[in-house]
Amino acid sequence: MAAHGEVVVLGAGIVGVSIALQLQLRGRPTILLDQQGAGEGTSFGNAGLIQREAVMPHPFPRALATLLSYARNQSTEAYYRGTMLPRLAIPFLQYWYNSREDRHRMIARHYAALITHCLDDHLALAGAAGAIDLLRPGGWLQVHQNPESLDHALKEAAYKAGNFEVAYDALDGVQVAAMECSLRPGLAGGIHWTQPLAVVDPHALTRAYLSYFTRMGGEFRTSAVRSIERGSTGWRIATVHEPVDAAEVVVALGAWSPDVTGSLGYHPPLFVKRGYHMHYAQPEATPLCHPVLDADQGYMLVPMQRGIRLTTGAEFARRDAPPSAIPLSRAEAQARRLLPALGGRLDADPWMGVRPCTPDMLPIIGRAPGHPGVWYAFGHCHQGLTLGPTTGRLLAEMMLGETPFTDPAPYRPERF
Fold first, then answer.
1. Are 9 and 16 in contact, with CB atoms under 8 Å apart?
2. Which stretches of 257-354 are DSSP H helices?
3. pLDDT at 4
4. How many C-beta neighbours within 10 Å does residue 167 have?
């Protein structure tokens, strides 16, 4: 006997949960389906920031010196498995092309059209879900050891402020020390991004949104998806348990989305950035108060309920390859230089997650080409947490024939 929902959303990360919730709030009976619990995949491990300042996606480096530095494969910010380079050649070439200054600034306008709504959309859902206590105001701190990199970052911050209403405070080394006295002295300075919210437990936030979804009548099922195919009146999703029928289907499986879209003839040039995190005990005398990015090394230290979460730079490897100890060991060595009083590890093993990325740095949101009733929402790279509720609102408006709050054309699946 098949279960039936008006809409079935595949994927219970923060993006999928937010889509399901936005649909359910609009009166569309929705089933949310994932092979594991809500927020237990890539959404579980992140820096926990709702990044209002992230209006310009991270570009591919174009300076020769920077490229040669990464080619040595010794940095904390990025680590690659040599076997991945042939597979990454085409998407990296596209990524490099789209990172040209004129194209990157055009892409930033499309990206900002989503990012500028992230705080309001999260606050609306968190308030209704009873999860406001998981959101901490005060922004986050970007610190620099190198004066030249600080100068470059301040120019970029000024551009964001002038074009996208981003708020920040420029700090010298003394002001950084006043904000976070546990950091090592002698830093060149930093930037205090004042608008973002910090999430003290990202998994708990996703679960709170899920709880709100089920209270509103939505249904969550745990089962692995085997296939999706056209049925007599809609779509049938075959799972390891009973099939699920629906008039419409949303694919929001992050890096695993191509496993489903491939059977529909859609093969986006998605590539993955893997990342790791570990929790550490807070310094006893002077706890870290703000999330801190070491901008010159590419890792973050984030105070959360469990302790200080250290998030690594990006690892370029096969999606399902075994974890590597290298990214975390490099990040931890640098973190202990920046925060000498960082305590011991609190987790038995590092967590690892997989971020889905597109060569033009924009997510894929919209109707599946050639398949009425199928919708896509994936490819958010580092901003799945930030853009979950906003993506959910945009897609729900499109699916219900409402006027979208922004032009969805830049995110259309047909561009790939």
1. yes
2. 257-261, 326-338
3. 61
4. 15
Q: What is the pLDDT of residue 381?
A: 94
Percent of the chain with pLDDT over 90: 87
pTM beyond 0.85: yes
Alpha helices in 306-361 (DSSP H): 326-338
Distance, in Å, from the CA atom of 154 to the CA atom of 137, rounded to the nearest integer, reads 22
What local confidence, expressed as pLDDT, does residue 1 receive?
Answer: 42
Is pLDDT above 90 for 154? yes
Q: Which of residues 85 and 314 earns the better pLDDT score? A: 314
For 177, the 3-state DSSP assignment is: helix
Instruction: Give the span between the Cα atoms of 373 and 378, in whole angstroms.
Output: 17
**What is the mean predicted confidence (pLDDT) over 276-281?**
98
Mean pLDDT score, 231-253: 91
Task: Taking residues 96-115, report their average pLDDT.
Answer: 96
